[in-house]
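Section 5.1 Outputs to date
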Amino acid sequence: MRPFDIRNINRLNSFEWSKCNNDGRSSYWRDWVCKTYGGEFKQEMVNKTLMWKWDVPVGEMAKWIFTDENGVEHRIYNFKGFCKEHGLDDARMYDTYTGKRKSHKGWKASRIYGVEGRKNPKDFGRELPPPARS
């Protein structure tokens, strides 16, 4: 299957746009995009046709996602502020993010750039998860 590139989600007739607008499972894909990348879909009228458009408020897309010692995922938009708020050393947390450390005070990097298992920004948007069977 072709890689899913979130940057094309609002480009008319792109693979990503088609998955969220014309596909028989479009509601699944819209839910998946919102769960994975944040934001929400809004309906807009374009050329007398009602279409879904993805909208992410500025700064809402998480760049880092860490898991605490209890296994709860935290989406991080302001890295230094988050570390200060939770009493964490930002340099050691960054080392955890890059893979130099396994964890810092029980915190582990679980998902990066909004895609599971990605530690490298170049891997952004590679494979799609299999659609859930219903």
